[in-house]
TrEMBL record:
Pfam families: p450. This is (African queen) hypothetical protein. It comes from the Eukaryota. It is a peripheral membrane protein.
Length: 466
């Protein structure tokens, strides 16, 4: 490993610590550190986190080759920090991820997602009504309203609960509001080497906080599990089965099921809420694009019709804004995979040793000026067909690639766009300043550090819809 590592450029490493100290900065500064490394050393950079060799690859062709390979099908060491919350399963990898993913996959395919349309529309309508009651002169963080909508949508679809059950789910609101802080804690522990030492972690008080979060999550998932077990005593058809039912019927260990329930829950409602809030904020800051999207909705969907899959396929302006949000605010700022078999990249110049951690810097890839004109500006038009065809398709990978890609991409896309349509056709959004002025932060995903702040006012819908 040491001999092969010499062939990859990178910063000098200290004994024992390696390069860990350069990453011991505030979360928002870590994006800058990765940018500095790739700017200085190029598309292939090595760095050591203690004894672990990490090789960062930013070449799009090699990224596709590696992520679609069968020899990098295990998550990297950083995912160990998630396991107290979501176990050894779908998101974190380990020996069960492939089997568990296969079990729940039917609940995420296009046919299943089409059946969720009525729930998505109803919850999105409720969100639009709630937002319409806001003071039109008052700026507020729209994320908290949106996450309530996505949470209810996930509970009633992937978790199989009724509306009444989801409204009364044990500790749901606590989990919904604390998920962000939970991710902040995970990220802090991940990036502070001294917190890896159990006694220091305990004395800092963070072990107690973590235990409280774990208890909160266990209370929630135990309630979901019991509700679905009760429901399964009655007849359930293949068409009515949800992801939780499928896990139960496979007779998995209860603890495994609860951990996968939280994985399904948090990766669906929290991530989707961030993207919805991002799209709404982008439209608030880009009035011309907001009117384009509104006119397109009016012509395609009308003012009252339920949003369907066919409608969404025709909303091209909305799709461009959606993709620009995914580019600008990466849901996963970086991916890490473990190399299980020696692999050669960079036209044979670099060999990745076994047990190396492959790092894919998605945020930096999505900001690379070789593929993106003015990458630090928000420009939805970069996703016009004539611009897309001139860009390397592997330079845009918001949902990752290969067998470990995002399981919920179809689900999330339909949920997010349905919510935006229901909101935009009823409300006009406004915000102060520019998007580029807003400070970014990272706690696993990239987000706006001070929230998604905007104003809303009711539209005067006198235009005739097609």
């Amino acid at each position: 490993m040491l001999e092969l590592a010499k062939l990859v450029p990178g910063p000098p490493a200290l004994p024992l610590l390696g390069n860990a100290l350069i990453f011991m900065v505030h979360a928002k500064e870590q994006l800058k550190i990765v940018n500095q490394l790739t700017s200085k050393y190029g598309d292939y950079v090595k760095f050591w986190l203690g004894p672990d060799l990490n090789i960062c690859v930013k070449n799009p062709a090699d990224i596709r080759f590696l992520l679609t390979s069968n020899t990098v099908n295990q998550k990297g060491p950083v995912y160990e920090f998630f396991k107290n919350f979501i176990g050894d399963g779908i998101l974190t990898g380990g020996k069960h991820w492939k089997a568990h993913r296969k079990i729940v996959m039917p609940s995420y395919n296009k046919k299943a997602v089409q059946q969720f349309s009525s729930v998505f529309n109803k919850e999105a309508e409720d969100l639009a009504k709630a937002l319409s009651k806001k003071d039109p002169h008052q700026t507020f963080n729209v994320y908290f309203d949106v996450v309530n909508c996505t949470t209810q949508s996930v509970c009633q679809t992937l978790l199989g609960l009724t509306k009444e059950e989801s409204l009364n789910l044990t500790r749901l609101r606590e989990v919904m509001l604390e998920t962000h802080n939970m991710y902040q804690l995970i990220h802090l522990k991940m990036t502070r080497w001294w917190l890896h030492i159990p006694i220091i972690y305990y004395l800092s008080g963070r072990k107690r906080i973590e235990d409280n979060y774990i208890k909160m999550v266990d209370d929630l998932t135990s309630d979901v599990l019991q509700k679905r077990k009760n429901a399964l005593k009655h007849e359930v058809t293949e068409n009515s089965m949800n992801a939780v039912d499928r896990l139960i019927l496979e007779i998995l260990d209860e603890e495994e099921i609860k951990l996968e329930i939280f994985t399904i829950f948090t990766t669906s409602q929290e991530a989707s809420a961030k993207i919805v809030a991002g799209v709404l904020l982008f439209l608030a800051h880009l009035p011309d694009w907001q009117e384009r999207v509104y006119d397109e909705i009016l012509a395609t969907v009308g003012l009252r019709d339920e949003v369907t899959e066919e409608h969404l396929k025709s909303l091209h302006n909305l799709d461009m804004v959606y993709k620009e949000v995914l580019r600008y605010l990466s849901i996963g700022s970086m991916l890490q995979r473990t190399v299980e078999k020696e692999m050669t990249i960079n036209n044979g110049k670099i060999t990745l040793p076994v047990n190396t951690s492959l790092v894919v810097p998605i945020h930096e890839l999505h900001r690379d000026p070789r593929y993106w004109d003015e990458p630090n500006k928000v420009k939805p038009e970069r996703f016009l067909p004539e611009n897309v065809k001139n860009r390397d398709p592997n330079a845009f990978i918001p949902f990752s690639l290969g067998p470990m890609d995002c399981l919920g991409r179809v689900y999330a896309t339909k949920l997010i766009k349905t919510i935006v349509v229901q909101v935009i056709r009823q409300l006009k959004l406004e915000a102060d300043g520019t998007l580029e002025e807003l400070e970014l932060d990272v706690a696993i995903s990239v987000k706006f550090a001070k929230g998604y702040n905007l104003r809303v006012k009711k539209r005067n819908n006198n235009r005739t819809s097609a």
